[in-house]
UniProtKB/TrEMBL annotation:
Gene3D superfamilies: 3.40.50.12610. It is found in: Endomembrane system. GO terms for cellular component: endomembrane system; membrane. Keywords: Glycosyltransferase, Magnesium, Manganese, Membrane, Metal-binding, Transferase, Transmembrane, Transmembrane helix. Residues 96-154 form the STT3/PglB/AglB core domain. Its cofactor is Mg(2+); Mn(2+). GO terms for molecular function: dolichyl-diphosphooligosaccharide-protein glycotransferase activity; metal ion binding. It is a multi-pass membrane protein. This is Dolichyl-diphosphooligosaccharide--protein glycosyltransferase subunit STT3B (Trinotate prediction).
Length: 235
Protein backbone atom coordinates (compact mmCIF):
# COMPACT_ATOMS: atom_id res chain seq x y z
CA UNK A 1 0.00 0.00 0.00
CA UNK A 2 2.80 2.40 0.85
CA UNK A 3 4.59 1.46 -2.36
CA UNK A 4 1.42 2.14 -4.36
CA UNK A 5 0.97 5.55 -2.78
CA UNK A 6 4.56 6.49 -3.42
CA UNK A 7 4.18 5.46 -7.06
CA UNK A 8 1.07 7.71 -7.41
CA UNK A 9 2.85 10.63 -5.81
CA UNK A 10 5.83 10.30 -8.10
CA UNK A 11 3.68 9.77 -11.22
CA UNK A 12 1.50 12.87 -10.67
CA UNK A 13 2.75 15.65 -13.06
CA UNK A 14 3.93 18.80 -11.37
CA UNK A 15 1.83 21.94 -11.91
CA UNK A 16 3.55 24.72 -13.90
CA UNK A 17 4.56 27.66 -11.75
CA UNK A 18 2.29 30.71 -11.89
CA UNK A 19 3.50 33.60 -14.02
CA UNK A 20 4.71 36.43 -11.94
CA UNK A 21 6.13 39.84 -12.75
CA UNK A 22 5.05 42.25 -15.53
CA UNK A 23 3.59 39.82 -18.10
CA UNK A 24 0.52 38.55 -16.32
CA UNK A 25 -3.21 38.87 -16.95
CA UNK A 26 -3.88 41.56 -14.37
CA UNK A 27 -1.15 43.80 -15.82
CA UNK A 28 -2.59 43.46 -19.32
CA UNK A 29 -5.99 44.59 -18.01
CA UNK A 30 -4.42 47.56 -16.24
CA UNK A 31 -2.50 48.60 -19.36
CA UNK A 32 -5.63 48.40 -21.53
CA UNK A 33 -7.69 50.36 -18.99
CA UNK A 34 -5.01 53.05 -18.75
CA UNK A 35 -4.84 53.37 -22.55
CA UNK A 36 -8.62 53.78 -22.79
CA UNK A 37 -8.66 56.40 -20.03
CA UNK A 38 -5.78 58.27 -21.68
CA UNK A 39 -7.62 58.29 -25.03
CA UNK A 40 -10.82 59.59 -23.42
CA UNK A 41 -8.87 62.28 -21.56
CA UNK A 42 -7.20 63.42 -24.80
CA UNK A 43 -10.62 63.62 -26.49
CA UNK A 44 -11.95 65.78 -23.66
CA UNK A 45 -8.88 68.03 -23.82
CA UNK A 46 -9.28 68.43 -27.59
CA UNK A 47 -12.98 69.25 -27.12
CA UNK A 48 -12.20 71.91 -24.50
CA UNK A 49 -9.51 73.49 -26.69
CA UNK A 50 -11.83 73.49 -29.70
CA UNK A 51 -14.66 75.11 -27.71
CA UNK A 52 -12.30 77.73 -26.32
CA UNK A 53 -11.01 78.59 -29.80
CA UNK A 54 -14.52 78.76 -31.28
CA UNK A 55 -15.74 80.99 -28.47
CA UNK A 56 -12.76 83.30 -28.80
CA UNK A 57 -13.17 83.68 -32.56
CA UNK A 58 -16.96 83.79 -32.82
CA UNK A 59 -18.18 85.46 -29.64
CA UNK A 60 -15.39 87.31 -27.91
CA UNK A 61 -14.60 89.86 -30.63
CA UNK A 62 -16.33 93.25 -30.41
CA UNK A 63 -18.78 94.14 -33.17
CA UNK A 64 -17.06 97.48 -33.79
CA UNK A 65 -13.60 96.09 -34.57
CA UNK A 66 -13.68 93.05 -36.87
CA UNK A 67 -10.91 90.63 -37.77
CA UNK A 68 -10.17 88.26 -40.62
CA UNK A 69 -7.36 86.04 -41.85
CA UNK A 70 -5.01 86.60 -44.75
CA UNK A 71 -4.27 83.71 -47.15
CA UNK A 72 -1.08 83.01 -45.20
CA UNK A 73 -3.06 82.62 -41.96
CA UNK A 74 -2.03 85.93 -40.41
CA UNK A 75 -4.66 88.12 -38.77
CA UNK A 76 -5.68 91.56 -39.96
CA UNK A 77 -8.02 94.01 -38.28
CA UNK A 78 -10.98 95.78 -39.93
CA UNK A 79 -11.29 99.06 -38.06
CA UNK A 80 -13.63 100.93 -40.42
CA UNK A 81 -16.53 101.25 -37.97
CA UNK A 82 -14.47 102.88 -35.25
CA UNK A 83 -12.74 105.19 -37.73
CA UNK A 84 -16.09 106.30 -39.18
CA UNK A 85 -17.42 107.13 -35.73
CA UNK A 86 -14.19 108.93 -34.89
CA UNK A 87 -14.51 110.99 -38.08
CA UNK A 88 -18.06 111.98 -37.12
CA UNK A 89 -16.87 113.00 -33.68
CA UNK A 90 -13.99 115.09 -34.98
CA UNK A 91 -15.50 116.64 -38.12
CA UNK A 92 -19.15 117.38 -37.39
CA UNK A 93 -20.95 119.84 -35.19
CA UNK A 94 -21.78 118.39 -31.75
CA UNK A 95 -25.44 119.19 -32.39
CA UNK A 96 -25.52 117.30 -35.70
CA UNK A 97 -28.10 114.58 -36.30
CA UNK A 98 -27.06 111.37 -38.05
CA UNK A 99 -29.46 109.06 -39.84
CA UNK A 100 -28.49 105.41 -40.23
CA UNK A 101 -30.20 102.07 -39.91
CA UNK A 102 -31.04 101.29 -36.29
CA UNK A 103 -28.20 98.72 -35.93
CA UNK A 104 -25.62 101.47 -35.52
CA UNK A 105 -27.62 103.84 -33.32
CA UNK A 106 -26.00 103.00 -29.99
CA UNK A 107 -22.51 102.95 -31.50
CA UNK A 108 -22.96 106.39 -33.07
CA UNK A 109 -24.31 107.78 -29.82
CA UNK A 110 -21.62 106.22 -27.66
CA UNK A 111 -18.53 106.52 -29.86
CA UNK A 112 -19.30 109.53 -32.06
CA UNK A 113 -21.34 111.37 -29.41
CA UNK A 114 -23.93 112.41 -31.99
CA UNK A 115 -27.72 112.30 -31.99
CA UNK A 116 -29.27 109.53 -34.09
CA UNK A 117 -32.75 109.25 -35.59
CA UNK A 118 -33.26 105.58 -34.63
CA UNK A 119 -31.27 103.19 -32.49
CA UNK A 120 -31.42 99.72 -30.93
CA UNK A 121 -34.06 100.86 -28.43
CA UNK A 122 -36.49 102.46 -30.89
CA UNK A 123 -39.88 100.84 -30.33
CA UNK A 124 -41.81 103.08 -32.71
CA UNK A 125 -42.05 100.96 -35.85
CA UNK A 126 -43.33 103.92 -37.88
CA UNK A 127 -40.17 105.85 -37.07
CA UNK A 128 -37.95 102.97 -38.22
CA UNK A 129 -40.11 102.55 -41.32
CA UNK A 130 -39.65 106.23 -42.18
CA UNK A 131 -35.87 105.80 -42.11
CA UNK A 132 -36.23 102.72 -44.30
CA UNK A 133 -38.44 104.68 -46.69
CA UNK A 134 -35.79 107.39 -46.97
CA UNK A 135 -33.12 104.79 -47.76
CA UNK A 136 -35.37 103.10 -50.33
CA UNK A 137 -36.58 106.28 -52.06
CA UNK A 138 -34.96 108.21 -54.87
CA UNK A 139 -32.84 111.21 -53.97
CA UNK A 140 -35.59 113.81 -54.35
CA UNK A 141 -38.08 111.95 -52.15
CA UNK A 142 -35.36 111.02 -49.67
CA UNK A 143 -34.22 114.64 -49.39
CA UNK A 144 -37.71 115.73 -48.34
CA UNK A 145 -37.77 113.07 -45.61
CA UNK A 146 -34.29 114.02 -44.41
CA UNK A 147 -35.26 117.69 -44.16
CA UNK A 148 -38.40 116.81 -42.20
CA UNK A 149 -36.25 114.85 -39.73
CA UNK A 150 -33.63 117.63 -39.60
CA UNK A 151 -30.90 115.18 -40.60
CA UNK A 152 -27.40 116.54 -41.18
CA UNK A 153 -25.54 113.34 -42.12
CA UNK A 154 -26.47 109.92 -43.48
CA UNK A 155 -24.29 106.93 -42.61
CA UNK A 156 -24.36 103.70 -44.61
CA UNK A 157 -22.12 100.66 -44.29
CA UNK A 158 -20.81 99.28 -47.59
CA UNK A 159 -18.66 96.15 -47.72
CA UNK A 160 -18.16 95.81 -51.46
CA UNK A 161 -14.50 96.82 -51.35
CA UNK A 162 -13.32 94.40 -48.68
CA UNK A 163 -15.97 91.71 -49.18
CA UNK A 164 -17.87 92.38 -45.94
CA UNK A 165 -21.21 90.61 -46.38
CA UNK A 166 -22.97 92.19 -43.38
CA UNK A 167 -23.30 95.63 -44.94
CA UNK A 168 -26.43 97.71 -45.54
CA UNK A 169 -26.92 96.47 -49.09
CA UNK A 170 -27.30 93.00 -47.64
CA UNK A 171 -29.84 94.31 -45.11
CA UNK A 172 -31.59 96.59 -47.56
CA UNK A 173 -34.54 94.30 -48.27
CA UNK A 174 -35.50 94.48 -44.58
CA UNK A 175 -35.59 98.26 -44.84
CA UNK A 176 -37.83 97.92 -47.89
CA UNK A 177 -40.15 95.41 -46.21
CA UNK A 178 -40.52 97.40 -43.00
CA UNK A 179 -41.16 100.66 -44.84
CA UNK A 180 -43.63 98.93 -47.18
CA UNK A 181 -45.64 97.85 -44.15
CA UNK A 182 -46.12 101.49 -43.13
CA UNK A 183 -46.02 103.18 -46.54
CA UNK A 184 -47.44 100.70 -49.09
CA UNK A 185 -48.37 103.51 -51.49
CA UNK A 186 -44.76 104.62 -51.79
CA UNK A 187 -42.67 101.45 -51.32
CA UNK A 188 -43.26 98.09 -52.99
CA UNK A 189 -40.77 95.25 -52.53
CA UNK A 190 -41.14 93.72 -56.04
CA UNK A 191 -39.93 97.01 -57.54
CA UNK A 192 -36.47 96.28 -56.13
CA UNK A 193 -36.17 92.91 -57.86
CA UNK A 194 -34.87 92.26 -61.36
CA UNK A 195 -37.17 91.21 -64.19
CA UNK A 196 -36.36 87.60 -63.29
CA UNK A 197 -37.54 88.23 -59.73
CA UNK A 198 -34.06 88.17 -58.15
CA UNK A 199 -32.56 90.58 -55.66
CA UNK A 200 -29.44 91.71 -57.49
CA UNK A 201 -27.07 94.65 -57.60
CA UNK A 202 -25.43 93.73 -60.90
CA UNK A 203 -26.27 94.53 -64.50
CA UNK A 204 -29.86 93.30 -64.08
CA UNK A 205 -30.59 95.65 -61.18
CA UNK A 206 -34.00 97.31 -61.34
CA UNK A 207 -34.34 101.04 -61.93
CA UNK A 208 -36.03 101.52 -58.55
CA UNK A 209 -33.14 99.81 -56.79
CA UNK A 210 -30.52 101.66 -58.81
CA UNK A 211 -32.09 105.06 -58.08
CA UNK A 212 -32.58 104.47 -54.36
CA UNK A 213 -30.60 106.54 -51.87
CA UNK A 214 -29.03 103.40 -50.41
CA UNK A 215 -27.74 102.15 -53.77
CA UNK A 216 -26.41 105.54 -54.83
CA UNK A 217 -24.58 106.13 -51.56
CA UNK A 218 -23.04 102.65 -51.44
CA UNK A 219 -21.86 102.64 -55.04
CA UNK A 220 -20.84 106.28 -55.28
CA UNK A 221 -17.60 106.37 -57.33
CA UNK A 222 -17.33 102.60 -57.07
CA UNK A 223 -16.80 102.40 -60.83
CA UNK A 224 -13.42 104.11 -60.34
CA UNK A 225 -12.13 101.46 -57.92
CA UNK A 226 -10.12 98.49 -59.17
CA UNK A 227 -10.19 95.59 -56.73
CA UNK A 228 -8.15 93.19 -58.85
CA UNK A 229 -5.76 93.43 -61.78
CA UNK A 230 -7.72 90.61 -63.39
CA UNK A 231 -10.91 92.69 -63.59
CA UNK A 232 -11.77 96.18 -64.81
CA UNK A 233 -12.71 98.97 -62.42
CA UNK A 234 -15.99 98.59 -60.61
CA UNK A 235 -15.78 94.79 -60.27
Amino acid sequence: FELENSIKETSTPAKPPKKTGFFNKSNYVNIFTSAVLLFISMCFMHFVLHCTYTTRVSYSGPSVVLSNQNPDGSLYIIDDFRQAYYWLNQNTDPKSKVMSWWDYGYQITGMANRTTIVDNNTWNNSHIALVGRAMASNESAAYSILRSLEVDYVLVIFGGVIGFSGDDINKFLWMVRISQGEFPRHISEPDYFSEEGAYTIGKDVSDTMKNSLMYKMCYYNFAKIRLSYQHPTGY
